[in-house]
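Limitations

Structures in this collection are predictions, not experimental determinations, and the ligand pose is part of the prediction. Treat each record accordingly. The example that follows, with S-adenosyl-L-homocysteine as the small molecule, is included so readers can see exactly what is and is not provided: the inputs are given verbatim, and the output is the predicted complex.
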Amino acid sequence: MSTPARRSHRFACFFGIVILLCLVVVFLQSSVSMKTSLAYDEDWFAQKREEMVDLLELYGIRNPEVLEAMRRVPRHRFVPAAYVNDAYGDHPLPIGYGQTISQPYIVALMTELLEVNAESRVLEIGTGSGYQAAILAEIVAEVYTIEIIPELAERSTKLLEELGYTNIHTMCADGYFGWESEAPFDAIIVTAAATHVPNPLIQQLKDGGRMVIPVGPPGAIQTLWRITKHGEAISKENYGPVRFVPLTRR
Ligand code: SAH
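Predicted complex:
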């Protein structure tokens, strides 16, 4: 015969097991719904990326490798969490420390102007979020990229590693002086506005190499130039007004 004390003990055990089962069901359900919403987000981002590339084509970007790279790189991974839903809009976004990730059209245009291919070795000044470096890495053999702000250098290096890029080499330094030990480069891209074209960068460009660089006053409108090296001489082509954060010095 069971005493009232035993009965209430059994009831408590039964009740405990029921609560435990309920918790397990709730946990399983929430992890399944988390997975579905993540999958949904990735599809949504892929669709936004397609729309972004359609717009780039409409704006005149023609190089199929550039368009394919813009289609592949998950731009939403390079912007702060607060802006992910806006990652594929054609405008720059803040990335912290007063810096910005450039608008997709400018990234595509500058990449196209570099005229690079699968054999190229490219130097970038101003890693920032790492997005431009990732776009280049999809097309060229090796990317060397320099960032002056340690926190941004660390963050982008980690992200590029996480995304599996093995052909991007990062360094935290003043990019004005380039990357002498890895020079000469087939192409150089400067993604911050310089008051003049840094001479060390011209020196580190191969004969026939291209440099794409915004030049002009900081905090105002600059001009986007493509500079081509011909032996000791250079030629310059003007690609119109742009607005970049300044190239700072250490
Ligand atoms: N290419 C970046 C955006 C660049 S924003 C991207 O795809 O996200 C410009 C970056 O240049 C900023 O991160 C800024 O800190 C960096 N920068 C400014 N002056 C620099 C210098 N002298 N050397 C290296 N990086 C510099």
